[in-house]
Amino acid sequence: MINLNLYGWNEELNQSKQESIYKALFHGRISIVHRTCYEVIAEDGTFQCELTGNLMFGKSNFDLPCVGDWVIFQQFDHNKGIILDLLPRHHVLYRRKSGSVSEKQAIASHVDKAFIVQSLDDNFNLRRMERFMVQVVQEGIQPVLILNKADLDYDRAFIEEEIRQKAHQLPVFFTSIHQPETILQVRNTIAEGETVVFVGSSGVGKSSLVNSLCGKPVLLTGEISTSTGKGKHTSTRREMVIMEGAGIIIDTPGVREFGLAVDDPASLTEMLDLSGYAELCRFKNCTHTNEPGCAVLEALDTGSLPQTVYDNYIKLQKEAWHFYTSEHEKRKRDKSFSRILEEVKKRKPRL
C-alpha cells in the first residue's frame, strides 16, 4: 500500500474529490506522461491509464493532464485504468508553446518550489534565470536558484556580484555532485510531501542532481561530451520521483528557449526589481519607455539602473504583452463563437 500523503495528497484535494461525481473511484497522481497514456501512482501501485474521449477531445491542450496532476480513474485489469476526472490544479508551471503566439503548455502542477538550474560554465546567464523566475513567481511558486558544477574552475566573485541584486528574491545554492555537503544543503530545503520541479537548459546536470538528492540512480544521465565539455542532454520527458524521507521531484527536459505565458505583464516591474523606481514615476500607467517624469529612465540615465536589466525588462515586457493580448483576443473569439453556437441551438427549425 502506497501512502499518497508522501506524494502531496492533502485535505484540500480530498475535499475536491468529494465534489466529483466519480468520488467513489480511485485517485492518484500522474508521474509520467507518454504520448498516448499516463502513469498514475495510486494507493494500490502504479497504473497505466488512458483518457476518456470527453477529456481527450473536450479540453484545450494546456488543460490536458500533466505531470503532478491528481486524477480520478476507473481501474480495469490489474494495472490499467481510464482517467475520468482531473482535480482542480494549483501552482501550475506553464510556458508558451513552441512555435505558438498565444498557446501555453502545462509543464507540471501542484508545485511548491521551482529549482532553476544553471551550470557554472558558459551556461550561466542571469537574464535567462530572470525569464524562468518571472514565469515561476507568476504562478505562486517559490523560485530557487541552483548554480551547479561548483567543482569547476570559475570566478566566484564575479558570479556573486552578478546575482547580488537577486539574492533577496530567491535562495541561491552552489552545488556539485562531487561535493556531497552541497547536495545535503539543498535536500534539507525540501520538506516531506513538498513538490519541487527542476527547470533549466540542456546539459546543466539536472538529472545528476536529482539522482544525488535521492541517493541512488533514479533517472538516466549522459556522459560529458568530448567536443563541448558539457553534459549530454538525457531527459526526454517530464518525470516525477519521490525522495525517501523528503519530498517529490519533477525533472524536466532541458529547453533552449522558455517562452513566457504571463497573464499580468504589469507585474514584471516588481519581479525584475524596477518597482522601487516605477513607484516614483509621474504617471501611474507609465510604460517606462519615453514618458516625461519616468523615474525608471532617470535611474537608467544616472547609472543606478544597469542597462542590461532595463533591456531585459523591455524584452520580457514586449513578449508578455504579446502573449497577453493574443490570448485575450483568442478568448474573445472563443466567447463570440460560443454565443453563435448557442443562438443556433435556440433557433427553431423550419417546418
UniProtKB/TrEMBL annotation:
Q: Which keywords accompany this UniProt record?
A: Cytoplasm, GTP-binding, Hydrolase, Metal-binding, Nucleotide-binding, Ribosome biogenesis, RNA-binding, rRNA-binding, Zinc
Q: Which domain of life does the protein's organism represent? A: Bacteria
Q: Which cofactor does it need?
A: Zn(2+)
**Which PROSITE patterns does UniProt cross-reference here?**
ENGC_GTPASE, G_CP
Q: Where does Zn(2+) bind?
A: 281, 286, 288, 294
Q: Name one GO biological process term.
A: ribosomal small subunit biogenesis
Name the family the entry cites: Belongs to the TRAFAC class YlqF/YawG GTPase family. RsgA subfamily.
Cofactor annotation remark: Binds 1 zinc ion per subunit.
Primary site of residence: cytoplasm
Organism this protein belongs to: Chryseobacterium flavum
EngC GTPase domain location is: 109-256
Name of this chain's protein? Small ribosomal subunit biogenesis GTPase RsgA
Gene Ontology MF: a single term: rRNA binding
Stated role: One of several proteins that assist in the late maturation steps of the functional core of the 30S ribosomal subunit. Helps release RbfA from mature subunits. May play a role in the assembly of ribosomal proteins into the subunit. Circularly permuted GTPase that catalyzes slow GTP hydrolysis, GTPase activity is stimulated by the 30S ribosomal subunit.
**Domain CP-type G: start-end pairs:** 101-258
Q: Which GO terms describe its cellular component?
A: cytoplasm
Which residues hold GTP?
A: 148-151, 200-208
Localization, per the record, is: Cytoplasm
Enzyme class at the top of the EC tree: hydrolase
How is the subunit organization of this protein annotated in UniProt?
A: Monomer. Associates with 30S ribosomal subunit, binds 16S rRNA.
Signal peptide limits: none
InterPro entries associated with the record = G_CP_dom (IPR030378), NA-bd_OB-fold (IPR012340), P-loop_NTPase (IPR027417), Ribosome_biogen_GTPase_RsgA (IPR004881), RsgA_GTPase_dom (IPR010914)
- The EC designation for this entry is 3.6.1.-
